[in-house]
Amino acid sequence: MSLIDNRKAFHDYFIEERHEAGVVLEGWEVKAIRAGRAQIKEAYVVILEGELYLLGAHISPLPTASTHVHPDPTRTRKLLLHAEEIAKLIGKVERAGYTLIPVNLHYNQGRIKVEIGLAKGKKQHDKREAEKEKDWEREKQRWMKQR
Questions:
Q1: Which of 32, 128, 129, 132 is deepest in the core (most CB within 10 A)?
Q2: Could you tell me which of 2, 11, 9, 6 has the C-alpha nearest to residue 130?
Q3: What is the pLDDT of residues 107-130, one digit of tens each?
Q4: Where are the beta strands (DSSP E) in the chain?
Q5: Rounded distance, CA 56 to CA 40, Å?
């Protein structure tokens, strides 16, 4: 069940592979994500010292957050993957010119996971072509309904 989707990722990138990763979160962050107070539209994944980190994800704290916790909505969050998966992703990012983009936040067995996509950037003409195809599909559906 998807909690937060990154629709901008599909507009700006060709997503070629997807991997599910755990996220190191604090308690208030989990509550805020369950309440739908997160957005990953501007987020991306970086590789630092052989580990993956999620940057730019904004999780707004709930107004009922504890007084002793000083929440940072855009802090860097560590992603949890197996070492072999991380090695494969690092190799593809460094050699083949790919980038890592968070696609969605979802539950898996009661835990919040992030799905990251191995992506290549779209050029402007690719974006226009995708928009034309989407419009054509909508027009086809309208014509089929009328008949």
A1: 32
A2: 11
A3: 888 889 999 988 887 777 777 888
A4: 2-5, 13-23, 38-39, 44-48, 51-55, 58-59, 77-80, 99-108, 111-121
A5: 7
